[in-house]
Specification:
Layout: E1 2-6, H1 11-22, E2 26-31, H2 39-48, E3 61-63, E4 70-74, H3 80-90, E5 94-97, H4 106-109, H5 111-131, E6 136-142, H6 166-185, E7 189-194, E8 197-198, H7 207-216, E9 221-223, E10 230-231, E11 234-235, H8 236-248, E12 271-276, E13 282-283, H9 284-295, E14 301-303, H10 319-325, H11 333-354
Parallel strand pairs: 1-2, 1-5, 2-4, 5-6, 6-7, 7-12, 8-11, 9-14
Antiparallel strand pairs: 3-4, 10-13
Length: 355
Amino acid sequence: MKILITGTAGFIGYHLAIRMLERGDEVVGLDSINDYYDPNLKFDRLRQTGIPREAIQPGEMVASTKYPDYRFVQMDLQDQQPLMDLFRQEGFDRVCHLAAQAGVRYSLTHPHAYVDSNLVAFMNILEACRHNNIGHLAYASSSSVYGMNEAMPFSTHDNVDHPVSLYAATKKSNELMAHTYSHLYELPTTGLRFFTVYGPWGRPDMALFKFTRAILQDEPIHVYNNGEMQRDFTYIDDIVEGVVRVIDKAPSGNPQWSGSDPDPASSPAPYKIYNIGNNSPVHLMDFIQAIEKEAGREATKEFMPMQPGDVRRTWADVSDLMDDFDYKPATGIQEGVGRFVQWYREYYQELKYSR
C-alpha cells in the first residue's frame, strides 16, 4: 500500500518508515525538522534512510537513494493548503500520524507550540484524510493521557478526563477530534497510546539518553521523586510491530457499544484506542542500574523532588492489543537498554571522526 508517515525525522517515525519499506510498502515521509532537540540527529536519521541533508528543501519531494519506494518532504503541518495538495497529488491508502510537539516539561514553558503542532496540525490531517478517502488514519496518542488516574494497570476502557500537563491534554483532544471525524464522516481512526518508548536513535530529551550521556561522561544524573517512579518502558521494535499490525486492520465499529454505559476505547463509529506498552513497569532505580551495567560504571545520583506535570507510575493494560492482534510487546529492559547503549557509543564515536 501507499502510506504517508508524518514525523519520519523523529524517533518512532524513522523506525516505522524503515519497517514499512522493508516489507514492500510505498512510503512518503513528512517532517518539519524543528529544533525542539538537536536537528542534527533528525538529519542523521533521514540520512540512514537515503535522504541526504543537502537535498532537503522545504516543500520539495526528495527521493531516497537507498529505498526506491521512499520519498520525503519537509513540511509544516500547520500549513493547510500544501498538505491538502500533497494528499490530492499522492492518493494515499493509509496515514500514520506520528508528528507532534513532544515533551511534558516543555509544555509548561512553551504551551502555544502544543496548540499549533498537536491541535491545529491534527485538525489539518483529519481534514486532508476526510476529503481524500483515506482508508485508515492511525495516530500517536500517549500514556500521559491517564493523568491523575490511579487505577492500575491503565486501561483504555477507563475515563481519562484529568490530564496533568498540556501535552497530555492535547493528546486526549486528538482522540476526541478523531472520534468526531469517525462518527461524522466514517473515517476509520485508531489512536495508539505509547508507553515510554526507548531504543537506538531515541530522543535526547528522554531519560535513557540523558542518563547514558551523563554516566559515560562522569556527570551526575537527576533522579526525580527521589527515585520513587515506575515506567512501563517499551522497546522501539515492539512499538513498531504493534503500529504495523494496527495500520493493516482498520476499525469497523463496535456493535455492542452503548450510550448508557459508554466505552471510551471504542464506538459504533470506526474508531478505536489501544495501549502499546510492555505491560511490565520498571522501577526507576532498576532502570538506572541497567544503564550502569551496560555502561560499565556507576552513576553519580542527585535526588530531586517530583516535577510538575509528571506522574509517579505508568503500566499498560494491553489485553485489547492481544485480543485483536495476538500481540504483546516483550523486549526486556536489560536487552533494550543494552542495544541503546551500544548504539549511543557507536553513533557518537562516528561523530567524533566525521565532524
